[in-house]
Amino acid sequence: MRAHTFLLAALVLALLPASAQQPAPATPAPAWVQEFNSLPEASRKSYIDQFRRAEQLFAQKRTMECLFSLTELEKIYAGNPGLYNLRGACYIEIRNVEKALENFEKALKLDPSNLTIQFNLAEARYVSHDYAGAMKAFTELLPSFKDNPGMTSLLQFKRYICARKLDDQALARELESLYGPMDDTPYYYCTQAIIKFLGGDKDAAQEQLLSAIRIHGGTSAMQAFTDAMTEAGILPSPYGQTVPTAQPEKTGLEKNH
Fold first, then answer.
1. Who contacts 127 (Cβ-Cβ below 8 Å, separation ≥6)?
2. Going by C-beta distance under 8 Å and a sequence separation of 6 or more, which residues neighbour residue 29?
3. Among 149, 84, 162, which residue's Cα sits nearest to residue 123?
4. Cystine design at 88: which of 72, 100, 219, 227 (Cβ 3.0–4.6 Å)?
């Protein structure tokens, strides 16, 4: 899973002089933004600079340093959903999915309409093999990405894997026919590879994957599709072991869903 992070655009806007700001929106700013705006200007500027630094640490794979920075930032201001989203992404990197879910849930409570957080939470459920929860979350995200063909095909592919894991054969058959070999997505070849893998024909599955790589190799889409297969235990992990496919023990978070 590749969790996504986002900059504090709303908070940066709060630092602009009044003449440079856009007209006030019809609806009031979220409570957490209003709370942040009540901090002294110097504190706000320092906070944003430090948060950007934390994002850079994450991008540089300096995950533990990023986590430490976020702990320090939380002492200054604890209401920023971006902090918990980034912390969740860090926990995904070190494979502590329970902590990732906890932080993505907290971020979503602070900013319920943020698609980045919604997607990360869906991904965390998928990585934890909560396929029923992931299916629901990916399905709910589809309308928001109706104008983004790349994201739509990826969401549908993840729904297909969830359907196979949940043994929903009718939905799986429906999803198998969404895309063809001529579409600009690895979807067709990757679904065919899964069919062959799960049918025990590894050679045929490898042929389908090679076809996908020949056409889409080197693209972010191909990486995202193979990542989805690896997380579900269909492809071997690049670290030399297969991701376990058994359902994990309950984390205690399910009651919130």
1. 1, 92, 97, 100, 231
2. 10, 37
3. 162
4. 100
